[in-house]
Amino acid sequence: TQLLEQSPQFLSIQEGENLTVYCNSSSVFSSLQWYRQEPGEGPVLLVTVVTGGEVKKLKRLTFQFGDARKDSSLHITAAQPGDTGLYLCAGPPEGQNFVFGPGTRLSVLP
Amino acid sequence: NAGVTQTPKFRVLKTGQSMTLLCAQDMNHEYMYWYRQDPGMGLRLIHYSVGEGTTAKGEVPDGYNVSRLKKQNFLLGLESAAPSQTSVYFCASSYSFPEHTEAFFGQGTRLTVV
User: Is residue A102 scored above 90 in pLDDT?
Assistant: First the structure.
C-alpha cells in the first residue's frame, strides 16, 4: 500500500489545454513537495508547500495543499510541450520517513 | 557545476554477479540517498547517510550495502545481483532532510540483471 496516491496515472493532452493532477493520502503530511522528472533525468524540485490551504504559483503552474494536509493538486494552465514529464509528489507522513508517490506521466502534444 | 554525478549510466549484470554504483556530489551536502525507481512504484529509498561515516537503512535495503567514507561520495553495492534488482537507481544529496530543503538528483543508472 502506497502512502501517496497520484491520479491520473497517465495524461495526454493538446498544447494549450489546462489540466490538474492530484496527490492524495490517508495520512497527514507536515509538508509536500512536487518534482518533475524528464526522460533520462533525475527529478527536479518544483515547489514545497507547508501550510494547510497554501497555494503557490510558479508561472503557469499552481500548487495547492489541502486544508487537512492530506492532499495536494497541481494545475497547469495552457500546457506546453515543455511541460511533458513525470510529476511526482513527495513528503513525510507525520512520524514517518519521506516518501514519493508513483507519479503522473504527462504528455503534451504540439 | 557538476552537482550529483552517477557512474555508470548503464550496466547489465548476470545473476549472482556483484557491482558497485558510484555517486559523487560537489555541493558539500551532508545528506545523501540511494533510491530505486520502478514503473508504477515511484522512488523508493534503499539507504541513506546523514554524514561522512554514517549510513542507515531505508524502505527497501535488502540485497544492498552502502558506504560513505568521504563526504562527497556515497557508494551502493550489490553483492549478488538478482533479477528483482533490475531497476533505475538514483542518487541524491541535500543540505538537510528532504522535507526541509531541495534534494538534488543524479541522472540515474539503468541496471539490468539477467
Answer: yes
